[in-house]
């Protein structure tokens, strides 16, 4: 997969097209499945939040930020990464936010802390996506968690549709 991303990056540099990076964190693997689905449509490079450097992030024109929702917000590694970024890193760049969660009915509320941080850094937030993921928070751990079979094929399909909508916005 690295070769595919490298050749895409080389092609992007030659053709001066949009370059996309997806930065994520995952504990159960749910969010990685969604990150890979989105990346397949956007021809994006993916990197875990703990390994993505600010210099690397600055080279991309579209950056996706995602993780599971833990105690009502994105993973701390993702929030810390955005907090470390210089104020103007997002100028002339677009971002999108995605997550996996026990339920997505409150996604706008859960995405708010990350969205605010991205806007403060100068990014234009082009969209947000959430799908069900295995949830073992609090008492759900006692029963083996909720949404054990998510993300499923339908969730992956929806993530790809979301990526297509983002792609249309940034052309």
The gyration radius over C-alpha positions equals 15 Å
Stretches where pLDDT is under 50 for at least 5 consecutive residues are: 1-16
Topology order in helix (H) and strand (E) letters: HEHEHEEHEHEH
Mean pLDDT: 86
Cα-to-Cα separation, first versus last residue:
25 Å
DSSP, total strands: 6
Q: How much β-strand is present in the residues?
A: 15-25%
Derived from helix and strand composition plus strand pairing, the structural class reads alpha/beta
Let me know the largest β-sheet: 6 strands, mixed
Percent helix, as a range, is 40-55%
Count of alpha/pi helices: 6
Globular, elongated, flat, extended or rod-shaped: what is the shape?
A: globular
Describe the structure in brief.
With 171 residues, the protein is of the alpha/beta class. The protein has helices at residues 2-15, 30-42, 54-57, 76-84, 107-120, 153-169, and strands at residues 20-24, 45-48, 62-70, 73-74, 94-101, 124-132.
